[in-house]
Amino acid sequence: MKKSALPLLVLPLLSLFGSIAPLAAEPGGFRFPGGEVDDGREAFIALNCLQCHTVAKTELPDPKSQRRIELNLAGQVRFVKRYEDLVIAITNPRHVVTEQYRAILTGAEASGGIEPVMPDFTKDMSARQLMDLTAFLDAAYRAGQESYGK
Fold it and tell me: Which pTM value belongs to this model?
């Protein structure tokens, strides 16, 4: 099995760029240098994020198969309140299990250890896709949520 360098790339970038003001989205915040919104939309589709996610105010194709669940991104601020939260949510979905996700679990699932349905994309996603996907979702949250990034 081919190991991805993405986790090895992201963690040093987070610590390095988190303290460099010109790259920061907000004071003291982290932002990847670069990232294309249109390419991020394509990464969202290519990585099959459509299987479980919609994006508020964004036209996307229907998933190729029936949705597993439907979580609307950028529609309501829950966990993701800043750019850095997007990076965490994409690279470590186990970091937070939202109330929206808990609501769809059965009682037995909710009482045990909750595992997110979202797969670990760090093995399949390129660093470029991560940068672009984050730019795409960041733009969607900025357009959809007045309090995002503040």
Answer: 0.71
